[in-house]
Write a structure and sequence with these properties.
Blueprint: H1 6-18, H2 22-29, H3 33-41, H4 48-58, H5 62-66, H6 75-84, H7 89-107
């Protein structure tokens, strides 16, 4: 495996953690076992849709599986997106100011 293949390393770890076979994941993702094995060994890089399906299978974010984040899920981000979606720009600004205020009190 290539040293910089964090995707492959994380894929192996997730597969072993869940006790899944290459065949099971490949079938779910819609690729061959051979291609999945190449992802694990860092010999091939998945396209966006394949990476998304793999991430969804393991219930992790694409950022996590590709090594852009150590946070497995973006649950917090999703919660804030859901909370913010119906707010006006002024309301969003007020919420951000309040969060900054709470953080400043914590630092004192």
């Amino acid at each position: 495996m290539e040293e910089d293949s964090l995707f492959g390393k994380r894929l192996i770890a997730l597969r072993e953690e869940r006790g899944c076979s290459l065949e099971e994941i490949a079938k779910h993702v819609g690729i061959t076992k051979s291609v999945l094995s190449k992802y694990e060994r860092g010999l091939h890089v998945p396209g966006l849709m394949a990476a998304k399906r793999i991430a969804d299978f393991f219930n992790v974010s694409i950022d996590y599986i590709t090594g852009n984040s150590d946070e497995r899920n973006n649950v917090t981000r999703k919660i804030f997106q859901d909370l913010f979606k119906d707010l006006s720009e002024n309301e969003k600004s007020d919420v951000i100011k309040y969060i900054e205020f709470v953080k400043s009190k914590k630092e004192d």
